[in-house]
Fold:
Amino acid sequence: QVQLAESGGGLVQPGGSRRLSCAASGSIERILVMNWYRQAPGQQRESIAAMRPDGATNYEETVKGRFTISMNNAENTLYLQMNNLNVEDTAVYFCNIISMARTYWGQGIQVTVSS
Structure:
């Protein structure tokens, strides 16, 4: 069964950039939507970026203009480019892919924004 694995997290200074990757262990058929979520300490998990297979994207208001979701189909990898990070972006970030057959989640990866 296909698994998702995030990478690219870590400590970054305010104003810095980071790119998260979400690698699928195999090909996922009939994808409906691909998402990035995050969960800050004491908060609920929230969707911050979504991408349909046709390339249409949608962003949560606080990340719009700073974060970019993209997909490399040849490498079965979903990306989240994060620019101009601030301390409020500190959270565990999760990738999520919804297909017609099932929903896939990564294990989550910590991003900490701090000076």
User: Anything to note?
Assistant: The mean pLDDT is 97.
